[in-house]
Design brief:
Blueprint (H helix, E strand, L loop, with lengths): L1 H27 L6 E5 L6 H17 L3 E5 L6 H8 L7 E6 H10 L7 H4 E16 L8 H10 L5 E4 L5 H13 L4 E4 L3 H9 L5 E5 H10 L3 E5 L25 E9 L4 H15 L4 H6 L3 E3 L4 H22 L5
Parallel strand pairs: 1-2, 1-3, 5-6, 5-7
Antiparallel strand pairs: 3-9, 4-7, 4-8, 4-9, 4-10
Helix pairs in contact: 1-10, 2-9, 2-10, 4-12
């Protein structure tokens, strides 16, 4: 009996050593070729901007080029589904965000991917506010005036989003629920096209991520009425928060992070996590992100995974309580 137990223990030890050795081998020669970072939105949006800023500098740290692969459509669903189905070898990465990792699961029962099941979190990259911007032709000069305008003509104001179920859509719907207003949703295949039509006057307003909207606010092509976080944003300190501008308690933050397909070896995930942390600490990175209205923020894979799960729970409750429906 003791001999059998001893053999069993020996086999377990050998297996454990073999597993550690395999994990080490998996990361030992990694990477030997360029990496692909899937961005589930077209070029020009906030996620795309972040991916290009981080991807270029991270390529220097990794020692291989990081190729940005824009796969827009369906509020991030197309790109997320493609990334989830990719080979779990560390060569395909995903730029995930609040919209496609938390809002979509909260809104869509038939979602073709499940974030906690189908992805291996690597690290957070950045957090930011959404900015409420309107076309200069809109008469409202403040959040209070916009609310009054919307209530005076229910369903007449059109707001753009990056797609049905996107973070831009959800934030606008939360604003509608908080203010008792009725505005028409016009979904686009990404923030870039939505901003283009907003500047052209085809729609009247947007709750945008900061990077694609802020330059147009600074140039006067758009007018900012508020930011959605509890505190003002350093990149636009003159813009009040939506809460201080009239909607008490309104506080919505966006976040983005890097993930790999589930079953990517832990050693590779750990290597990529260290590379992300090193990238975000490079000289000039915080300033480059700050200029886009983004705040650099890294994390462990475990903390990022816990955030995703908690945000899904939070927004599932929000969707149910607010009665938010996708168009």
């Amino acid at each position: 009996m003791r001999k059998t137990s001893g053999v069993a223990v020996l086999l377990l030890v050998v297996a454990a050593v073999a597993d550690v050795s395999a994990q080490g081998s998996a990361a030992g020669g990694f990477p030997t070729k360029p990496l692909r970072l899937i961005v589930p939105f077209p070029p020009g949006g906030g996620n795309d901007t972040l991916a290009r800023v981080v991807g270029q500098r991270m390529g220097e740290v990794v020692g291989q080029q990081i190729v940005i692969d824009n796969r827009g459509g369906a509020g991030g669903v197309i790109g997320a589904t493609m990334a989830a189905a990719a080979a779990p070898d560390g060569y395909t990465l995903f730029l995930g965000s609040l919209g496609n990792l938390a809002h979509n699961p909260a809104l869509k029962a038939d979602l073709p991917y499940n974030p906690p099941r189908d992805f291996a979190p690597i690290s957070l990259l950045a957090t930011s506010a959404f900015i409420l911007a309107v076309h200069p032709g809109v008469t409202a000069k403040s959040v209070r005036e916009l609310i009054a305008l919307a209530k005076a003509a229910p369903g007449k104001l059109n707001y753009a989003s990056a797609g049905t179920g996107s973070s831009l859509h959800m934030t606008a719907e939360l604003f509608k629920h908080a203010t008792g207003t009725d505005m028409l949703h016009v979904p686009y295949k990404g923030t870039g096209p939505a901003i283009t039509d907003l500047i052209g006057g085809r729609v009247q307003l947007i709750f945008s991520t900061m990077p694609p909207a802020l330059p147009h606010v600074k140039s006067g092509k758009l007018r900012a009425l508020g930011v959605t976080t509890a505190k003002r944003v350093a990149a636009a300190p003159e813009v009040p928060t939506v809460a201080e501008a009239g909607v008490a308690g309104f506080d919505v933050s966006n976040w983005q992070g890097m993930l790999a397909p589930a079953k990517t070896p832990a050693a590779i995930v750990g290597r990529l996590n260290r590379d992300v942390l090193a990238t975000l600490k490079l000289p000039g990175m915080a300033e480059a992100l700050g200029a886009q209205g983004l705040e650099s923020e890294s994390s462990t894979p475990e903390r990022f995974g816990a955030l995703i799960k908690s945000e899904i729970t939070k927004y599932t409750q929000v969707v149910k309580a607010a009665g938010i429906k996708v168009d």
